[in-house]
Amino acid sequence: MVLFDTNVILRYILRDNLAMTEKIKRQLSIEIGYVPIEVIAEVVYVLSKVYKVERNIISQIITDITNTDKIRIIDTNVVQHALEVFASSSLDFVDCLLVGYAKEKQYFVFTFDKKLQKYL
User: What's the whole-model pTM score?
Assistant: First the structure.
């Protein structure tokens, strides 16, 4: 199993470094790349804070990644639910992930955050 880190996913999305993009393509021709939720959280943060990408566009970009057959996001359902909340709310992405865990895995989220409680 090969795990992709944040920089690999960002290069894959942005395609801003041809040499790195080619290396990613070669790796994906060999085997599927897996992306942990922590990496998705960091990608969302970088896209929103550094690149100033709108929330709904970030949600679509990550959703598109989940629809490829060469990259798999670990706990895709949790991430997908989090992306839906992220695109339509002002919650930060980590809170959206907590909503995803609550809805998709029936986890109880103990929080004092009133805004988060509204979505739980």
Answer: 0.93
Query: Largest Cα–Cα distance in the chain?
Result: 46
CB 33 within 8 A of CB 27: yes
pLDDT tens track, the chain, 120 positions: 999 999 999 999 999 999 999 999 999 999 999 999 999 999 999 999 999 999 999 999 999 998 889 999 999 999 999 999 999 999 999 999 999 999 999 999 999 999 999 999
For the chain, counts of helices (H) and of strands (E): 7, 3
Which three-class secondary structure state does DSSP give residue 120?
Answer: coil
In the chain, what are the domains?
2-119 (3.40.50)
74: which DSSP letter? T
Task: Count the Cβ atoms, other than its own, within 10 Å of residue 52.
Answer: 7
DSSP code at position 13: H
Question: Cβ distance 58 to 66 under 8 Å?
Answer: no
